[in-house]
Amino acid sequence: GENVEQHPSTLSVQEGDSAVIKCTYSDSASNYFPWYKQELGKRPQLIIDIRSNVGEKKDQRIAVTLNKTAKHFSLHITETQPEDSAVYFCASPPSSGSARQLTFGSGTQLTVLP
Amino acid sequence: NAGVTQTPKFQVLKTGQSMTLQCAQDMNHEYMSWYRQDPGMGLRLIHYSVGAGITDQGEVPNGYNVSRSTTEDFPLRLLSAAPSQTSVYFCASTHLPSSVSQTQYFGPGTRLLVL
User: Which residues of A touch B35 (CB under 8 A)?
Assistant: First the structure.
């Protein structure tokens, strides 16, 4: 099955700085890479996703980049704000079986310091 | 739309007891799944379903059963609770056809403590 590794496990940044979280995946045929944000005590929610036919996608202050050759994808958050503090999870589905069967990374606790 | 709902929000069980975690969605999603979330381990897939009458195992299925009699409901049953099943359980749903969004919508979670 798919194996997804996420780094770092914790990340602290000053408000206004950028944050980068990286994930590597094992299945070279995987074609969908979402990122979920989970605030304390809340449910995970999708913040951005990318398909394998593009290398980068942006949505305001967040962006995701994909390097298919190296089998890694990264979440970039610019101009961080205190409300960005949360746990972020990357995920990837297997190339076989249900495309909705996501394997999640272990999560990154992002803390934005005021 | 209520989205994905789960009951109960919190439950305490004794070792050996059984219980059912309820999950329902009103978005007509074909795909539903159950995850457990443990500290430092992310979300791990327990069971999933691609439609009524169809279920399959995920990464950590032992000790859990599921059924999918309707499109809306996907209950998770713990047959004989063990302390190792102490966790937060999330139900999720999404559309199945690749031509529509793959966004998975999560329920609010059920926090389970097994003593």
Answer: 104
Query: Residue B109 burial by CB count (10 A; 0-12/13-18/19+): exposed, middle or buried?
Result: buried
List CB contacts (< 8 A) between A9 and chain B.
Answer: 40
Contact A99, A49 (CB under 8 A): no
Residue B62, both tokens:
């032992």
User: For A10-53, what is each residue's pLDDT tens digit?
Assistant: 999 999 999 999 999 998 888 889 999 999 999 999 999 998 88
Span B43-58, mean pLDDT? 94
Give chain A's contact residues with B (Cβ, < 8 Å): 1, 6, 9, 32, 34, 42-46, 49, 89, 98-107
In angstroms, what separates the C-alpha of B91 from chain A's closest C-alpha?
Answer: 10
- For the residues B11-25, what does the mean pLDDT come to? 97
